[in-house]
Amino acid sequence: xxxxxxxxxxxxxxxxxxxxxxxxxxxxxxxxxxxxxxxxxxxxxxxxxxxxxxxxxxxxxxxxxxxxxxxxxxxxxxxxxxxxxxxxxxxxxxxxxxxxxxxxxxxxxxxxxxxxxxxxxxxxxxxxxxxxxxxxxxxxxxxxxxxxxxxxxxxxxxxxxxxxxxxxxxxxxxxxxxxxxxxxxxxxxxxxxxxxxxxxxxxxxxxxxxxxxxxxxxxxxxxxxxxxxxxxxxxxxxxxxxxxxxxxxxxxxxxxxxxxxxxxxxxxxxxxxxxxxxxxxxxxxxxxxxxxxxxxxxxxxxxxxxxxxxxxxxxxxxxxxxxxxxxxxxxxxxxxxxxxxxxxxxxxxxxxxxxxxxxxxxxxxxxxxxxxxxxxxxxxxxxxxxxxxxxxxxxxxxxxxxxxxxxxxxxxxxxxxxxxxxxxxxxxxxxxxxxxxxxxxxxxxxxxxxxxxxxxxxxxxxxxxxxxxxxxxxxxxxxxxxxxxxxxxxxxxxxxxxxxxxxxxxxxxxxxxxxxxxxxxxxxxxxxxxxxxxxxxxxxxxxxxxxxxxxxxxxxxxxxxxxxxxxxxxxxxxxxxxxxxxxxxxxxxxxxxxxxxxxxxxxxxxxxxxxxxxxxxxxxxxxxxxxxxxxxxxxxxxxxxxxxxxxxxxxxxxxxxxxxxxxxxxxxxxxxxxxxxxxxxxxxxxxxx
Length: 689
Fold this sequence. Notes:
The chain is α/β, with parallel strands linked by helices.
């Protein structure tokens, strides 16, 4: 039996150097895939991860790898991998299973799944076996059938459709006929199994061979999708070079003082520039004028971060340069005296402390943690920094004057609007940790689909403001926000609402609003072909957009959209309830099929063990039954989507026309979708506050 190479500390050197051999049964086609070095490496790494130090996968290892609750299902799967029936899966068994389950023909994959369901190995899957596997699959995915169907009823539906000879059981040929009519069953099964076998997704690339674009093509595509951002970045670099070089050349002081002066001017310029993207009302106005295609407004937060990092580095060089000048005798006196008794020394210390406080609070780990208020509060030091900068060097107003004036005007407008209180007419604690607030619109509060606002609830915290997308359409008389319980403030809001539900309060829930502000979603109304991807509560801007699209249809405000694709991912079944009414409205009113809906329950099991459940679901759907998960006409898919395949199909369908992809959700998933969009030359827009 072939042994897996392991680290030298776990095996003799000669064993570690021995190249693994493919199992004897692999076909010529599979052998070609196996000899790929990256695939070999991925399979070896995955096997070590699943098997542990004993280099053998038992039922407990398999249960953990697949995240199964049922030990029985793990044992069934183990039995199909374990060729020599010794109770564990070794490397040869693992490779053989990969060949049949992922890299083999459709018939190989289906036969593997058939044997999983055929508990007594009699070549037939009877009603009892079907019912047991469907019940286990429902439990694994934590799905309660929306129409109240039991596992036994689902088994009966599948038997009625598949059992063509009416012998009370499903043969392999009968299951194969169902799979041929619904190839998506095998596609989802293959992807699901591939992801637990090689979590790095290396194996998925072998399932869909493609020729990677050349370096020139990639550069050309990137440039075409990011031309405005590249131009702005080039101008910024040029401006820094001119300011640094020009100031240094014009200085008559020694080199240390000249470097200090040049970097000081560059710091002021970069701080002035980083203020521009946070002038939210200005950005919203520019977006409303349709200038986002010419000016990279969607990348404003990225530019803000780039300019801030540049300012920090330049400030550090500025400090070191003047310290160097001090050590060389400019000026005379002790360092402590210079820092504590002079105007520039004292203000320099204040500037340094403010810079560090803002920088630490802006670190990704802090900003994305449950302590969002640290990010917010640390950024309040910007006022201290600006005041100290002007005192430190009054000439910095040449750079800072106009942006600071704009910031003051914006803050005054925000303060005036923030002072107007309104009430949340409804507050509900929904399942899956989401709180829904229906808020009465203040006078003059006009917004567009996808806009966001800052919310303050004095009963939770008087001085904290948090950004949330407006999930209702502007055509409604009220506005709605959905708040996911992630940090301290959002958890406190949910606890407060739950308390009000248990003991209804006589006083209304008072809230304050700051906004509305525009977002990248505004591009949607100028797009011809668009893909909307929402993950979890990230669906909120698209809920507003979908509702507004339908209400504007046939009017002078109708969008230019010719075809839209809406994709919503949720981990569990209950999260779909947040906007089930919106989706039902889309299904009912979208008679021209403007939107294709794609719903995915990512925690759902779609592997070989769930073949019977998947088959029963598609059979029920064919017969006109509502979706098992949501109750909608659109069938929810279990597991995660294949982004590359999905987006490539959309790209090919509309080529050479432009396709815009809009995303709102976790940054990790956004990075994955962004990479696919870059590969396929799709315009990518991400919702970011």
